[in-house]
Amino acid sequence: MTTNKLVPPERSTGAKPASSVAAPGATLTPASMQSGVALSPLGLLLPASLPSFGVLLINLGTPSAPTSRAIRRYLAQFLRDKRVIEASPWIWWPVLYGLILPTRPKRLAKAYQKIWTAHGSPLAVETQALAVALQEQMRVLHPRLTPVVDYGMCYGEPSIATAYQNLRRSG
Questions:
Q1: Per-residue pLDDT reduced to its tens digit, 7-44
Q2: C-alpha distances in Å from residue 12, one per residue of 9, 29, 39, 46
Q3: In the chain, which ranges are E strands?
Q4: Phi/psi at 70 (nearest 5 deg)?
């Protein structure tokens, strides 16, 4: 991602309307044209040429497949989180690994198979569709911007770390 150093433009009574190199609605002053920044209608400093940027949508998570193995992996990750289960690991982990993970994924797999689509988990499919729609809408509303929208899951795949790395590679 490109970073531009923003320098406050001098206030000028001879401010000109935004040109094709500034953000929509921005005001260019003689000083801002030299410094490469523009003042937005809200008084925010914007670079005259807007770089690409990323938006990362984050959702709770979903198993990668409607199988016992994938659900076990997802549940283990989810239920090991101390923010989800606040019990002491000395008490909780024997319950998790001795009772829940050996039995629950098999029963849940049947339920997940009923709602699973040809494209995958309903949550992942809808989150991906939201990311695509947001990216398209941002490009329509702000043609000078180059947004890249992706999504990551707190638990399951794609992880937040993977999605973040994808955004970084996108520029």
A1: 344 433 444 444 434 444 444 444 444 455 555 555 56
A2: 9, 6, 11, 17
A3: 16-17, 27-28, 37-39, 45-47, 52-62, 146-156
A4: -65, -40
The answer to whether 150 touches 57, Cβ cutoff 8 Å, is yes
Phi, psi angles (nearest 5°) of residue 128:
-65, -40
Q: What angle do CA 52, 17, 6 make, to 5 degrees?
A: 45
Q: Quick one: pLDDT band at residue 146, thresholds 50, 70, 90? A: confident
Structure token pair of residue 27 = 């005001």
- Determine the length of the chain: 171
Angle, in degrees to the nearest 10, between helices 101-115 and 68-80: 120
Q: Is the pLDDT reported for residue 160 higher than 60? A: yes
Cα atoms in the 13 Å half-sphere on the side-chain side of 42: 4
10 Å CB burial of residue 63 (0-12, 13-18, 19+) is buried
* pLDDT tens readout for residues 105-120: 999 999 999 999 999 9
Model-wide pTM > 0.70: no
Q: At which residue do the structure tokens 């794609």 appear?
A: 158
